[in-house]
Amino acid sequence: MTIPEPRRTGDRATETTPRRTSATRGKAAGSRSPGVEDGVDPQSDPPAEEGPADASGPAEAGLGDAVQPGAGEVTATVIVNAPAARVFAALLAWERQSDWIPFTRVRLVDGDGGEGSSIEAVTQVGPAVLRDEMRVIKVDRPYEIRVVHYGKVLRGPGVMRCTPMDGERTQVVWHEWFHLPGGATGKVAWPVLWPGSKVSLTQALRRFARMVEAGQLP
User: Could you give the C-alpha distances from 141 to 2, 42, 72, 80, 81, in angstroms and in order?
Assistant: First the structure.
């Protein structure tokens, strides 16, 4: 199962667009779908046939089966009232994720935040602590960021996509394919894994959108 590369028109890239949203030359339609609340389009999940890309570049070296998609699929979408370049820069501000992902502290372990960089995110909910190690494997400005989670518990590929829209707005789609952990540790950890569920990831993205719109990110 692979993520199709974004279609390009000239130097522009376009996302495979969700229902009720059309894309032309890298931009989606200017009007929102009915029922949009708090900047989230309920019709905006990517098509079911999309999947993570096959790993083949140097950034994926040594990650083993973590590059392969797992069964724990999580997707969330938000519309940000800001241009795509600004939204993309905010997503690349890895350590600032600590400000909008609940219960989580994020740090850049090595690299400049671009391809090949290593990121660590530590989430604590009560006595439960989860360490998430990930590597950035692709940065396609200002459209797509791909990562691979390669920790002991949290493993699998993920992608964040920005689609420019009319009116200086941007649709952000965050998609993860986690390996479901096994054994007693997995049964305890999975319910509190970051992002853990579509609801918690959507809430984080809503906070992200508010901070970008308020000029607090990047």
Answer: 20, 26, 27, 17, 18
Which helix (DSSP H) or strand (DSSP E) does residue 46 occupy?
A: none
Contact in structure between 171 and 44 (CB atoms under 8 Å) = yes
Dist. CA 43–CA 92, nearest whole Å: 26
Cα(209)–Cα(58) distance, rounded to whole angstroms? 32
pLDDT for 74:
87
- In the chain, domain spans: 65-213
List C-alpha distances in Å: 135 to 114, 126, 156, 205.
9, 27, 11, 21
| From 24-33, 87-96, 167-176, the region with the lowest mean pLDDT | 24-33
Is a pLDDT exceeding 50 seen at residue 6? no
CATH 3.30.530.20 is held by the domain 65-213? yes
Burial 6-20 (b: 16+ CB within 10 A, else e): beeeeeebbbbbbeb
How would residue 211 be classed by pLDDT, with cut points 50, 70 and 90? Answer: very high
What is the H or E stretch that residue 17 is in?
none
**SS3 of 24, please?**
strand
Contact 18, 43 (CB under 8 A): yes
